[in-house]
Design brief:
The structure is a single chain. The protein has helices at residues 50-58, 97-107, 116-128, 144-157, 174-191, 202-208, 240-266, and strands spanning 7-14, 27-34, 39-43, 65-70, 73-74, 82-85, 162-166, 194-198, 211-216, 221-227. It is of the alpha/beta class. The strands form two sheets. The chain has a six-stranded mixed sheet, with helices on both faces. It has a four-stranded antiparallel sheet with strand order 2-1-4-5, covered by helices on one side. Helix 2 (97-107) runs parallel beside helix 4, helix 3 (116-128) packs antiparallel against helix 4 and helix 6 (202-208) crosses helix 7. The longest helix has 27 residues, at 240-266. The relative contact order is 0.18. The model has no long low-confidence stretch (mean pLDDT 91). It binds adenosine-5'-triphosphate (ATP) and magnesium ion. The site of adenosine-5'-triphosphate has 13 residues, from helix 1.
């Protein structure tokens, strides 16, 4: 099993200089720990800073204050292999599906065209994600859901130390989404990669996340963190406990947005 590492946000504040209201922080004073080998699902309203948190781990935005650490040290993308599946899929338009998938491994000199072990792993992944027929197409020749699965394949092939997934299944129909969640779980069970997963779906957060962090907006902050004993347990999907947890989670999300509306009403 691959070594996975704890991710910790310590009083992290990020402010985009180009923001329309530069006085507003995108996320403010975020403290959150994702323990080694677990999946943390981030859920919250649009604009509350979920993608910003992933970008901060990947080193793509600089904190105004506070920090992100991996295994207690600086979150240095040169030191750790970070698999980042961005919200817009991040595919290179001039490269084929196959080239896009192997890109991350190639950059790390971990890919050899024609090497049986590498090719077998790629073929297995592409089959599991139902993209085996698309190897020689270009991204503009794919549907949104197909592009999303190519981006997933790239992140998984890398066998990263840390996995960052930004709404990884959002463009998929309901049945394919559930199937891809299971593909993710099977891969995660092989490697136990510490994972931050952004989602808008309560059931997805419950199905995949051992921890669920609820965020609130303006400024982006962590409103509540749940331990979720049902996360990562396929046999629990559809159970009474799962149903009850999803109802409780929805109530919490409603309470957080009602509190926010109340704050706005007073200001
Ligand atoms: N490059 C940028 N420049 C300026 N402001 C930005 C930039 N990227 C994001 N923001 C702002 O930062 C805040 C957080 O954005 P972010 O993309 O992290 O939200 P999100 O929770 O991922 O939203 P969504 O669910 O819609 O994807 C928003 O107010 C957004 O407008
Ligand atoms: Mg986002």
């Amino acid at each position: 099993m691959k070594q996975a590492d704890t991710i910790a946000f310590e009083h992290l504040t990020v402010r985009y200089r180009t923001a329309a209201h530069a006085k507003d922080a995108a996320v403010a004073d975020i403290s959150l720990t994702v323990p080694q080998g677990t999946v943390c699902a981030l859920i919250g309203p649009s604009g509350c800073g979920k993608s910003t948190l992933l970008r901060a781990v990947a080193g793509l935005v600089k904190p105004e204050s506070g920090c992100v650490t991996i295994a207690g040290g600086k979150a240095d993308p040169k030191k750790y292999c970070i698999g980042f599946m961005p919200q817009n899929y991040g595919l290179l338009p001039w490269q084929t599906v196959r080239e896009n998938i192997v890109l991350g491994c190639r950059i790390r000199h971990e890919w050899h065209d024609g090497r049986a072990e590498d090719e077998a792993r790629l073929a297995k992944l592409m089959t599991a994600l139902h993209i085996e027929e698309l190897a020689s197409r270009y991204p503009h020749e794919l549907s949104g859901g197909q592009q999303q699965r190519v981006s997933l394949a790239r992140a998984f092939l890398l066998r990263p130390d840390i996995l960052l997934m930004d709404e990884p299944f959002s463009a998929l129909d309901a049945i394919t989404r559930e199937e891809m969640q299971d593909v993710f779980l099977a891969l995660w069970q092989e490697q136990h990669v510490t994972t931050l997963l952004v989602t808008h779906y309560v059931e997805e957060a419950l199905y995949l996340g051992q921890e669920i962090a609820l965020m609130a907006a303006d400024p982006g902050r962590i409103a509540r963190v749940f331990a979720n004993p049902l996360g990562g347990c396929p046999e629990k999907r559809g159970s009474q406990a799962f149903f009850e947890m999803s109802r409780a989670l929805r109530e919490d999300i409603r309470a957080i947005s009602a509190a926010r509306a109340g704050e706005e009403g007073r200001s």
